[in-house]
Design a protein that fits this description.
The complex is a heterotrimer of chains A (about 220), B (about 650) and C (about 80).
Chain A (H helix, E strand, L loop, with lengths): L3 E6 L3 H12 L4 E7 L2 H11 L3 E5 L7 H11 L4 E6 L4 H10 L3 E4 L4 H12 L7 H11 L5 H10 L2 H12 L3 H8 L3 H15 L4 H11 L9
Parallel strand pairs in A: 1-2, 1-3, 3-4, 4-5
Helix pairs in contact in A: 2-3, 6-11, 8-10, 8-11, 9-10
Chain B lengths: L6 H10 L2 H18 L14 H43 L3 H44 L3 H16 L3 E7 L6 E7 L3 H5 L3 H9 L6 E9 L2 E10 L4 H5 L1 H43 L3 H16 L3 E8 L4 E8 L9 E2 L4 H9 L3 E3 L10 H5 L4 E9 L2 E10 L8 H70 L5 H28 L2 H5 L2 H16 L2 E7 L7 H22 L3 E9 L2 E8 L12 H4 L3 H12 L3 E6 L5 E8 L1
Parallel strand pairs in B: 11-12
Antiparallel strand pairs in B: 1-2, 1-4, 3-4, 5-6, 5-10, 6-7, 8-9, 9-10, 12-13, 13-15, 14-15
Helix pairs in contact in B: 2-3, 3-4, 4-5, 4-9, 5-9, 9-10, 9-13, 10-13, 13-14, 16-17, 17-19
Chain C lengths: L2 H35 L4 H13 L2 H7 L1 H14 L2
Helix pairs in contact in C: 1-2, 2-4, 3-4
Chain lengths: ~220, ~650, ~80
């Protein structure tokens, strides 16, 4: 199995080293590049095309949010995980608007980080349900007739169903059960969705759907 | 109706229409008849009065009554008539002509005595009546011209004179002015110079026989009265005392009227100076105060325009930043110390009056071109510092600035000095406030940053290291792993606390994400903590602003929301940010108890609302304006508008 | 010459030159008052006029008795 290719971006060398050491202990994780500032992070991401980028929010030259935006512009399939000192709502919204796949607190346990990397790579949500709810509230648009119809221009009916259930907060397993398909199928669907709409993670896809008006708050209750 | 009668005919007409005249005629005729009647009618036989005596008494009575009715002259005429009537009897009828003649003489003498005494008394009474009448006119009003004309008429009437004039002494003894006149030749009236006019008057044919008296008040001369007749007029010589008394009365009235005018003018000046003081103390904005003060000063002295010159300490030159009714280009002119009229005034510290700026040695060419003629300049001082000079000018050559003008302007100059000093002090204070605010923010930011970058990071590293430690060797004793776990928790706790502290100092949302997320966070926080219904809304197209503007707006919002939380007793507060063309407007509106905002922001200090003053000053520092709208029971609205 | 000419051409200019416009005006005013209120003919009035100026305290003090006396003589002689 391919290792998950990771780019570490953090301006504190000590922190980077510590994290790298801990990550590389895992068999399925591989740190392919390290960056000490935002600009370098974007450059290396462009060159190396990692699967996941672990990005410290506060970095010189270019801050985490801006770097995320740029990386997403270059390659939307890259999933960016922001490490932040604050889990303040405003930060979360800002990260997600920039295209991050999720965020983690900087002092989180290394296990959480590892788990998050794996989950994101598998297309799973890593947001706490309460936060997810807030995100949906924020990005949801009022019901629009054409929104829902337009969805089918880009996704198949099945894919839309999967996305909707993902937006509701269900895990891959729950979706599989709901639609009577295998988890693997769900993962494939999600993967296709990501590619079709040009995103790198579940939450990005959900936000995209919300923004386009493919489903509304009522649909997700 | 034109009267073709001469004065004599007029008088005759008056006499004839007087009934007393006819009674007199009857009495005289009767008495004469009795006098010449041969039959000796014995009247009043029991009394020792002879008939002749009775007739003589009747004659004298007639003379006396004539004096009463027709005056001294009338009395004399009647006396003459009586003597004439009595004489024929002396020479023709009387048996003892010598005795009879002596009787006639006696009668005549007695008659004359009576006439003379009565005449004098009458004249005295008539003089008093005249003075009375004139005094009444004089005290009727303070309309000087009206009074003087009326009085002149009376005098001419009383003295039977044809022409007259009243001249008043000009202010500061610079000449005479013709104020009232009757029957004067045109050339006298129309001469521009009062002095020449007065001199000409003395040579007039119409006043060949004249009387000229000075008008006095408290011994000081303040005018001239000249009355005259083309023909000889005895009254002129006779009534000198009367005229003198009248002239004194007039003099006093003139002085009173002048004093009243002076008082009125003084009051008006004081009112203007009060206006100046009020303007100055109600404003600290020099750009608003100085022009207003200049305009008031111009009004007070009747100038056409003015300029305020100020000493620029930095560049070591005199500049002319405030101009009124002068070409704006003059604002660019600068001169060195001591140059120009302003320079001279600033150096000497004394006011200067220039009659003709065009010929003034130290004139600044640019101002000469502007066409100034009369100029008065006073220094603007406060304490020992001279800030500049206030100059007022006229383009009218005949305009002269008086000593009083200088006195008023000097007082205004002092007031202007105080205003400028206050403005400088205030400006200094604001400058320091600005510096302190900057320093404070920088320091906060520095500390927050250090805490965040250095301290917290180190703590995180510590935490990770502990993790590594715990995970490294599974053969560690339970106690140690437990200990490490506890250390990690402790570290976690420290990180939290330091983080919170750092946030309070300088919220990173503001630096990292910008103003809008930071404001949204403020309102969310308010919702959570204070139980207020706080809303945040954005109008217009979002855009990022300069970090200084974003920080200032954030701090103002922070302070405003703090106020709402602490004082307003509100249930709902709305924070709105509106992006408009070239500016951004932020409004904090609550439905709390409100208050009465002071009229001027400078008074915020006085009413203890330092928070508001701070907000006001912060807004000003970035070129914006802060307004507070509030009324008791009607909530409060704080509005900040900043150009971007 | 006549009174007005004398005043205009000789007396007034001299006063203005020596004392300035303001003081000259003041002196001429008092002189005129003397002129008008003097009983007598033109010549007597004129003499009173000149005398008023030349007996003013400040004039004498500032110009000296001799100079002032000379003026008086000179001016009085102007009008026959």
């Amino acid at each position: 199995m391919d290792k998950i290719r990771i780019l570490l971006a953090d301006d504190h060398a000590l922190v980077r080293e510590g994290t790298k050491e801990l990550l590389e202990r895992e068999d399925d994780l591989e740190v392919v590049a390290e960056a000490g500032d935002g600009k370098t992070a974007v450059q290396l991401a462009t060159k190396q095309r990692p699967d996941v980028v672990i990005m410290d929010f506060a970095m010189p030259k270019l801050n985490g949010i801006e770097a995320t935006r740029q990386i997403k512009a270059i390659d939307p399939s890259i999933a960016v995980l922001v490490l932040t000192a604050y889990d303040n709502e405003q930060y979360i919204f800002a990260f997600l608007e920039a295209g991050a796949a999720g965020y983690l607190l900087k002092d989180a346990h290394i296990d959480e980080l590892i788990k998050a990397i794996r989950a994101v790579h598998a297309g799973e949500s890593i947001l706490h349900p309460a936060i997810a709810r807030k995100v949906i509230n924020r990005f949801a648009r009022p019901a629009e007739k054409y929104g829902k119809e337009a969805a089918l221009n880009q996704l198949t009916k099945r894919e839309l169903e999967v996305l909707k259930l993902a937006a509701k907060g269900m895990s891959n397993r729950e979706i599989a059960l709901e639609l009577s398909i295998s988890v693997r199928t769900v993962q494939t669907h999600l993967s296709n969705i990501f590619t079709k709409i040009g995103v790198g993670s579940r939450i990005e896809a959900v936000i995209y759907g919300l923004r386009q008006g493919w489903f509304t708050l009522e649909d997700l209750l | 109706m034109s009267s073709t009668l001469t004065p004599l005919q007029e008088r005759w007409k008056r006499i004839v229409s007087n009934p007393s005249f006819w009674i007199l005629v009857v009495v005289l005729t009767g008495t004469t008849f009795l006098h010449y009647c041969t039959p000796q009618i014995r009247l009043l036989a029991s009394y020792p009065i002879t008939r002749h005596a009775a007739e003589r008494i009747m004659f004298i009575v007639a003379v006396i009554s004539a004096t009463f009715t027709f005056g001294y002259v009338g009395g004399l005429i009647t006396l003459a008539l009586v003597v004439l009537l009595m004489l024929p009897r002396v020479f023709l009828i009387s048996l003892h002509p010598v005795d009879a003649f002596v009787e006639v003489i006696a009668t005549a003498l007695i008659g004359y005595l009576a006439v003379w005494m009565l005449g004098s008394k009458q004249r005295a009474v008539s003089r008093l009546k005249t003075i009375n009448a004139i005094t009444t006119v004089l005290t009727r009003s303070l309309e000087l011209e009206q009074i003087l004309n009326d009085v002149l008429d009376r005098i001419l009437d009383v003295m039977n004179v044809e022409a007259g004039a009243v001249y008043l002494l000009d202010k500061e003894e610079q000449g005479l002015t013709l104020v009232a006149h009757r029957n004067l030749p045109a050339e006298v009236i129309e001469t521009a110079s009062g002095l020449k006019s007065a001199r000409m008057l003395t040579r007039c044919e119409g006043l060949k026989y004249q009387l000229a008296m000075p008008l006095r008040s408290k011994g000081k001369v303040n005018g001239l009265l000249v009355v005259g007749n083309p023909k000889p007029c005895p009254a002129l010589r006779r009534e000198v005392k009367l005229v003198t008394t009248i002239c004194n009365a007039i003099g006093v009235v003139v002085e009173n009227a002048r004093l009243c005018q002076d008082i009125a003018r003084q009051l008006q000046i004081e009112r203007c100076v009060c206006e100046v003081v009020e303007e100055i103390t109600s404003e600290l904005e020099l750009d608003r105060v100085i022009p207003k003060v200049m305009q008031i000063a111009e009004r007070l002295v009747g100038a056409d325009g003015g300029v305020v010159a100020l000493w620029d300490e930095e560049r070591n030159v005199i500049t002319y930043p405030y101009l009124h009714n002068l070409p704006q280009a003059l604002a660019e002119v600068t001169v060195s110390e001591g140059e120009g009229l302003s320079g001279e005034v600033m150096n000497t510290g004394r006011p200067i009056v220039i009659d003709n700026y065009q010929t003034y040695a130290k004139a600044v060419p640019a101002f000469v071109q502007a066409g100034l003629t009369s100029v008065v300049a006073v220094p603007i001082v406060s304490g020992v510092r001279t800030f500049g000079a206030l100059s007022l000018f006229s383009i009218n050559e005949t305009k002269k600035f008086s000593d009083r003008d200088v006195t008023i302007l000097t007082a205004i100059g002092r007031q202007a000095g105080i205003a400028i000093e206050n403005a400088y002090l205030y400006e200094n204070m604001r400058f320091y406030a600005r510096r302190i605010t900057h320093a404070q923010e920088n320091e906060r930011q520095r500390i927050a940053r250090e805490l965040h970058d250095d301290t917290i990071q180190s703590l995180i590293v510590l935490s990770r290291r502990l993790e590594t430690l715990a995970a490294s060797d599974e053969r560690l004793p339970e106690a140690i792993t437990q200990g490490i776990k506890e250390l990690r928790e402790l570290t976690g706790g420290v990180i939290q606390r330091v983080r919170r502290f750092s946030q309070d100092l300088r919220p990173s949302i503001l630096d990292d994400l910008g103003l809008l997320p930071a404001l949204e966070e403020l309102t969310t926080d308010l919702n959570r903590q204070a139980g207020l219904q706080a809303e945040f809304q954005v109008l217009g197209t979002k855009r990022r602003l300069s970090s200084e503007v974003e920080l200032t707006l954030f701090r103002i919002a922070q302070e405003a929301l703090n106020n709402v939380r602490k004082h307003a007793q509100a249930t709902r507060v709305v924070l709105t940010v509106e992006f408009i063309n070239g500016a951004v407007q932020m409004t904090v509106q609550d439905d709390g108890k409100g208050f009465i905002p002071p009229k001027l922001t400078e008074h915020l200090v006085a009413v203890g609302k330092l928070g508001l003053l701070g907000m006001y000053e912060r807004a000003r520092l970035i070129g914006g304006m802060l307004t507070v709208e509030s009324a008791p029971g009607q909530g409060t609205r704080v509005i900040v508008k900043v150009p971007t | 010459m006549d009174v007005e000419t004398a005043i205009e051409t000789r007396i007034k200019p001299q006063l203005i030159k020596t004392f300035g416009q303001r003081r000259a005006n003041s002196l001429l005013t008092w002189a005129t008052i003397a002129y008008v209120t003097t009983n007598g003919d033109e010549k007597e009035r004129y003499r009173a006029f000149v005398h008023s100026i030349c007996s003013d305290d400040r004039v004498v003090r500032e110009c000296g008795e001799r100079a002032v006396a000379r003026w008086e003589e000179e001016w009085k002689a102007l009008v026959a």
